Task: structure prediction
Amino acid sequence: MSYASIDLSTWFGRTVYLYKFQAGSTVWRYTSTSRDYTFDGNVYTAVPIRHGDFETSQDELKSDLQIVMARTVDIVALFSGFPPEYMIPTIIYRTHKGCDEAIVEWQGWSAYCKVVDDEATLQCQSNDIVMSQSGLVRFSRICRHALYNKWCGAVAADYRLRLVGVTNPTATTLTHADLASQADGWWTGGYAELDTGERRMIVAHSGTTVTINYAFSNALDQSAGIAFYPGCDLTIETCDAKFGRRAAHGGQPSIPLNNPWDAKDKV
Result:
């Protein structure tokens, strides 16, 4: 039977919720049923998990969704210590036992996690809310675009340096000889990314060493690769010399430094 016919039937409907979370190439799949559930060739692991009511509102806070699960569920570890650098794409599917079809009941992003006693609560925002947060365009001498986004236009893959054998002298430092192939500060403001998709911002670069804002969630495997992406200080000079994107610079570097309406600046 099709999903629609089962859903509308009086006796055959046995609702199953499927939860999918993704961070880079790593995917977590869970179900609220008592046993693991296979759908579309993927296995959804049975865990203690539930979600709140779906609401649509112009009030951002009222449009949030909470997904509650046992603190022992694997994805909770992603938020332990420090949250991930980016929100986690999240999809909730609704289907019925014995049905080969499912609908997307809710889609959005998991932003952060709160653990109380034995339960962990993921605070999620719908795609509609995230898309509506466009923000105001402000005039500034430095660029207003985020590096590598569509308005910046720089393609991250063009500047990527993937290295194997990176050492980790301390929790927040990464060392490799090839990092010195660029001048000090080249990687500052960029990020380091594991093959799993886990990222950390690079806050300093000197010689063969970069410093990240906080440690990766697991110990580094030197046989695995880490990709390094250079940063930008948002000035038009760096935009031009480093990325060749002067025409796309989102700042207004010619804004006068002196306020013509300020009496102390008048002659």
Remarks:
- The longest strand covers residues 103-116.
- The chain has two domains: 3-132, 156-231.
